[in-house]
Amino acid sequence: MSIDTITIIDIPKITDVRGNLSVIENDVVPFDIKRVYYLYDVPSGTHRGGHAHKTLQQLLIAISGSFNVVLKDRNGQQKTITLNKPNKGLLIPNMTWRELEDFSSGAVCLVIASEIYDKEDYIRDFNKFLLKR
Ligand code: TYD
């Protein structure tokens, strides 16, 4: 998987005088949604992630606040993406190394996932990630 295939998805936003409402249905995401989780109360300076997934695909959304996502592929390419809009989602394909950092105070990272939790799907060693066939 190459960094070049990383995409930001527009999440539909319904606006009126009462504020905004964004909705994610299966047609917004290029996989069947099997799991939703969220990161919050992340202490300042914390790094999260630091792994890749063999098969899992994820959509990350900054529901509140902001954070940076550092993505690395196995061709040595690297890209940093700032997420700070609740109607933008970062689609992370499988076999992509990710690190989450620079969480703002009150930031919430919503993760929409293509699979249920499976610790065997994680690659936590960067060298093994680079060498995995
Ligand atoms: P981890 O994936 O290491 O978090 P991050 O990638 O944000 O650094 O998960 C932290 C802990 O939570 C770890 O013990 C596994 C557990 N966990 C679950 O039990 N279910 C889940 O769906 C997820 C994502 C994590």
Overview of this structure, please?
This protein is mainly beta and 133 residues long. The protein is built from 1 helix and 12 strands, in the order ββββββββββββα. It has one helix at residues 126-131, and strands at 7-10, 13-16, 19-22, 35-39, 48-53, 58-64, 67-72, 78-83, 88-92, 97-101, 108-113, 122-123. The strands form 3 sheets. The chain has a 5-stranded antiparallel beta sheet, with no helix packed on it. It has a 5-stranded antiparallel beta sheet with strand order 8-7-10-5-12. Strands 2-3 form a two-stranded antiparallel ribbon. A hairpin with a 5-residue loop joins β7 and β8. Thymidine-5'-diphosphate is lined by residues 35, 37, 39, 48-49, 117. Thymidine-5'-diphosphate binds next to β4 and β5.
Q: What is the helix/strand order?
A: EEEEEEEEEEEEH
Number of helices: 1
Radius of gyration: 15 Å
CATH topology: Jelly Rolls
Order of strands across the biggest sheet? 1-9-6-11-4
**In this structure, how is the largest beta sheet organized?**
5 strands, antiparallel
Total strands: 12
Helix vs. strand class: mainly beta
Which residues form runs of ≥5 with pLDDT under 50? none
Unique bound compounds: thymidine-5'-diphosphate
Q: Rough shape?
A: globular
The CATH homologous superfamily name equals Jelly Rolls
The CATH architecture category equals: Sandwich
Mean pLDDT: 96
Under the CATH scheme, which class? Mainly Beta
**Can you give the helix content as a percent range?**
under 10%
Layout of secondary structure:
Blueprint: E1 7-10, E2 13-16, E3 19-22, E4 35-39, E5 48-53, E6 58-64, E7 67-72, E8 78-83, E9 88-92, E10 97-101, E11 108-113, E12 122-123, H1 126-131
Antiparallel strand pairs: 1-9, 2-3, 4-11, 5-10, 5-12, 6-9, 6-11, 7-8, 7-10
